[in-house]
Amino acid sequence: MPREAEPSLNERAFVVQALQEGLRLDGRAFDQFRGLDLKFGDHYGVADVTLGKTRVLANVSAEVTAPYIDRPFDGIFTITTELSPMASPAFEVNRPTETEVLLSRLLEKTVRRSNALDTESLCLIAGQKCWSIRVDLHVLSHDGNLIDGSCLAVVAALRHFRRPDTSIEGETLTVYTPAEREPVPLSWLHSPFCITFSFYGEEGEIMLLDATLLEEQLRVSSCIISLNKHGEICQIAKLGGTPVEAVSLIQCASAALTKGKELSTLLDQKLAEDSKRRDKGGLLAELSAENER
Amino acid sequence: MPLDTSTYDLALLRVDGRRWNELRRLDGQIRTQAAADGSSYLEMGNTKVMCVVSGPSEDKRRGQTSASTATGSNAADVAVSVVVAGFSSVDRKKRGRGDKRIQELQTTISKALASNLHTHLYPRSTISISLNVLSQDGSLLAALINASTLALIDAGIPMTDYLVACTAGSTSSYAANDDRADPLVDLNNQEEQELPFLTMATLGATDKVAVLVCESRVQVSRLEGMMAAAADACKGVRDFLDQVIREKGHKMVTEGTIEKGASMAIEIDA
């Protein structure tokens, strides 16, 4: 099983010493993110997040299928993650590493279990037909903080996505092509964001945001907090590692809230820019079947 | 789903008749398996788990199911495997080996213990912990952590302090913004289904948090109260685990299984 190359003793000592003196290798402040860029693709539902050298691509697709027997009124919503050897030599195809398992569990808890997407709205004919929404997440380049980047990419892609419009008349279900009717956005309830904190030092007293791969390898423990802009925590995961004072975890939660609001504003702004770009000559309003009520 | 914890407001009593800060009945035993290096059995209410520790032993190829901390060769690996018995909950659910929820549990326990144990004393070796869940009624992760702490003490592996865990919830749901919400400790399955809750593991009686897992939607403002309640409950659990160990030690000395060491700091005659 290939492993990520471990940092040498010198590197280890240097980074930790620098952190204790209040410096990061790339000169950022402890609570500063790397350059964050979010791009949408030509199609609906493609989001590309770049965070420093980390790059993640999320793609959303929809198809009509039969719902699960035990949940006849709910649509299907799945998130699949793929960490290919392209991102890092430590990843192998078809053999999920610990990173991958934790990442997919985290997205599952943050986006799916917190009911960010209203799955009931995906139901077409109860017990027979529903939409199946699938998010494929590809990690293109791994330089630390995969979780924050992935979560942003998934949420952005889902909010950007438009599914084909449908109508039911009597027993017949019609799915319209984009040419016939403008596709409709998903019924989205709230946007959760993940913020990862990395701890350093004997007692975990140094706290970093957006750690790079090297910093991630050297951290003594980490805490991932997911929340939305309304201040609702969707998930907290401090899975072991050096024990940290309870007070500093509460500080983390309030720092995460500030950061979450920033990410939320950024996403709203990017989505608005994108819809403006697509809305050539203000035709979209006319094409839409929805009306203001 | 058809549960009702909303009656809590009327008498301040929970579904099973406890107050907000009361733990369920705890029952623990150590050295339950004679052949193992360390073993324990723990009941937290109706959650029942069993733990067997073997090692530290020579490093060998680990199975794929066990999560372990790859810390390089100069410290012992802690390999944890959790097996949930089919009969442990009401509906018999078949869980595959690659169940991500179980894998996450394993990783959490393994990482939490690795930072607490003095693994550097056993280079190039493995401490393997196998946990069996016999019955589930909420606070599963907490029970697993407590049981492994007991078994590791039985195995005589040096550690910084007891790693103790407990859950805490909040009586109001995420939607309701009422300030009167009380924290609750040591939730059972019924309460876990309905209320937002978190699992917290602390190092002994200190406020240092090794594990903090929350999987439900809850207001940020509610976090502090829940964590404080969980920390208090952890102290209670620590006292209980300590008592289990002391009683067993006392019994072994009186039975003559072991001799009372001259350097023994603990007063066991009490």
TrEMBL record, chain A:
Mention any Pfam family matching this sequence. RNase_PH
What is a single cellular component term in the Gene Ontology annotation? nuclear exosome (RNase complex)
Q: Name one GO molecular function term.
A: mRNA 3'-UTR AU-rich region binding
Q: Which CDD domains match?
A: RNase_PH_RRP45
Please state the protein's primary subcellular location. cytoplasm
- A GO BP entry: U5 snRNA 3'-end processing
Q: Does the keyword Endoplasmic reticulum apply?
A: no
Protein's name in the database: Exosome complex component RRP45
UniProtKB/TrEMBL annotation, chain B:
Molecular functions per Gene Ontology: RNA binding
Q: Mind listing the GO biological process terms from this record?
A: nuclear mRNA surveillance; poly(A)-dependent snoRNA 3'-end processing; rRNA catabolic process; U4 snRNA 3'-end processing
Against Pfam families, the record matches this protein to: RNase_PH, RNase_PH_C
List where in the cell it is found.
Answer: Cytoplasm; Nucleus, Nucleolus
Looking at the record, the residues that make up the Exoribonuclease phosphorolytic domain are: 22-158, 178-232
UniProt keywords (A-Z) are: Cytoplasm, Exosome
Q: Which GO terms describe its cellular component?
A: cytoplasmic exosome (RNase complex); nuclear exosome (RNase complex); nucleolus
Q: What family is reported?
A: Belongs to the RNase PH family.
Question: Subunit structure, briefly?
Answer: Component of the RNA exosome complex. Specifically part of the catalytically inactive RNA exosome core complex (Exo-9) which may associate with the catalytic subunits RRP6 and DIS3 in cytoplasmic- and nuclear-specific RNA exosome complex forms. Exo-9 is formed by a hexameric base ring of RNase PH domain-containing subunits and a cap ring consisting of CSL4, RRP4 and RRP40.
Name it: Ribosomal RNA-processing protein 41
Q: Which organism is it from?
A: Anthostomella pinea
